[in-house]
């Protein structure tokens, strides 16, 4: 199954991080909050320009532009 950006994952779905794209600062920021290869991400809600996810027991709100850097596969 091909990787899908986190920004396109529907609310209620759980996926795994396959890789993080972008510059060093973007990769470091996402890595620091738990978006590393193999981590499970649950999409709580996705509306407009924002997406709310839970990862490693924490809940985060991400702008869809940031979420496009997180590539995911089915969990």
Automatic annotation (TrEMBL):
<keyword id="KW-0408">Iron</keyword>
<dbReference type="Pfam" id="PF04023">
    <property type="entry name" value="FeoA"/>
</dbReference>
<dbReference type="InterPro" id="IPR038157">
    <property type="entry name" value="FeoA_core_dom"/>
</dbReference>
<dbReference type="GO" id="GO:0046914">
    <property type="term" value="F:transition metal ion binding"/>
</dbReference>
<feature type="domain" description="Ferrous iron transporter FeoA-like">
    <location>
        <begin position="4"/>
        <end position="73"/>
    </location>
</feature>
<dbReference type="InterPro" id="IPR008988">
    <property type="entry name" value="Transcriptional_repressor_C"/>
</dbReference>
<protein>
    <submittedName>
        <fullName>Ferrous iron transport protein A</fullName>
    </submittedName>
</protein>
<dbReference type="InterPro" id="IPR053184">
    <property type="entry name" value="FeoA-like"/>
</dbReference>
<dbReference type="InterPro" id="IPR007167">
    <property type="entry name" value="Fe-transptr_FeoA-like"/>
</dbReference>
